[in-house]
């Protein structure tokens, strides 16, 4: 195996066609291409061996090792998205999405991804803290305010999340237009 990883790899591929590798001899492929190498070149080989559909329901751990989170957030993100369809991420693998897109970055670009992963209904009843971290109060007051409003409907705001609304709209601003919200 050691030798395969550094030269005779083409021989291994011919001996084990991709179709077979994906359903049995996969362990052989992994030994031939250590994860480190896969992430920087032979990645296409790994993808062919584990089609996305399969990765999302089992071999996901393999995909994660091949593309460390840091790299995913700056290039291989499309790979991660295909492996974890939004529906699945929103109900369990959400931690994976958070690691791939640190909050700071989410607030300035990948925010649409975060929104799709946490539908408004779910965010308003638990994951609200996630939304707050992604949109610091300063920014909410000057643009993403509509997002905050959807996450905390007025009824709920009046019985608990009111402090959140107050921070987003300082009194000075409320007195000059957003009175209806306050």
Radius of gyration, whole Å: 23 Å
Order of helices and strands: HHHHHHHHHHHHHH
Largest sheet: none
Could you give the distance between the termini? 67 Å
Task: Please provide a brief summary of the model.
With about 180 residues, the chain is mainly α. The protein has helices spanning about 10-15, 20, 25-30, 35-50, 50-65, 70-85, 85-90, 95-100, 105-115, 120-125, 130-135, 135-150, 155-170, 170-175.
Name the features.
disordered N terminus, 182 residues, mainly alpha, elongated, 14 helices
Q: What's the layout of helices and strands?
A:
Elements: H1 9-15, H2 18-21, H3 26-32, H4 35-49, H5 52-66, H6 69-83, H7 86-90, H8 94-100, H9 103-117, H10 120-124, H11 128-134, H12 137-151, H13 154-168, H14 171-174
Helix pairs in contact: 4-5, 5-6, 12-13
Write up what this structure looks like.
The protein is mostly helical and 182 residues long. It has helices at residues 9-15, 18-21, 26-32, 35-49, 52-66, 69-83, 86-90, 94-100, 103-117, 120-124, 128-134, 137-151, 154-168, 171-174. α5 (52-66) packs antiparallel against α6 (69-83). The protein is elongated, with a radius of gyration of 23 Å. Mean pLDDT is 40; it is low at 1-182.
